[in-house]
Amino acid sequence: MQSSNSRKDLTKKKEEIFRKLKQREEYIITYADGVLCVSSELKKHLLKSYNIEEKRINIVPCGIDEAVYFFDEKIREILRKEMGLRNKLVFIYSGSMHPLQMPRAMVKLFEEFYKSDKEVFFLILTFEVEKAEKLLQYELVPQKNCRALTMEHSKVPRYLNAADIGILLREKNIVNRVACPTKFGEYMACGLYTMVTEEIGDISGMVEREKIGEVIKGSLGYSEMKAAANRILAKRVEIQKKENKEKIAQFAQTEYSWRNLMPTFWKTYEYLFKKSGLE
User: Fold this and answer.
1) CA 245, 251, 254, 259 torsion: positive or negative?
2) By residue range, what is the domain housing residue 245?
């Protein structure tokens, strides 16, 4: 057990590391000729925190390769038949089981759906299958309603196509408030309606504005989860329609495909070339 003096020393060290990192960040942002950031929320944060001209900042969200991530109804039908998922509403999570991803909250959220509809299924794609299985067992999720798989990254889009609803939960903090999780674009590109928490970069507002998913508001407590489950189950038929999936996938390609994002990169580099007299 650590002594109070040891804890104080550790806290001081962390504070000193943080102070030095902030100094370096301030120097880099202040003197950089061009800055790329992943969200408008991060841009606002930089403008508020540092002495930088707005014209030096361009927004490029974390993009997706549309040749890899796309919606395909045939792939969806084949895999759902293979896995016995034909009539089920399938939830999916792709990623690690790190606490940052809120895996326990994800499972508890799924439980709220299961209480109202026994034809729901939770598919977890992760390299930490043992952790996922232990968590599912601990929370008493029936085996027939869940599965954890590990696979090559290239095969992930196939399984995303087989699902209906992607899960993306984050705690409310400054890191997530300015973030742009890549999995959001991947989910959407494969036609997934996505459940997200509040204040995830530009994503939460986009989901609500474009009606391409569900924003779970509040503290992710029982009442918020139950309300979200009721709202989504009421839209089950609409969510699973081919037309709705195609609409979401098309929106993802417009907003997150590297093909459409690359011009912003070029805009930044052209500005730097002109500033350096290298055009």
Assistant:
1) negative
2) 73-256
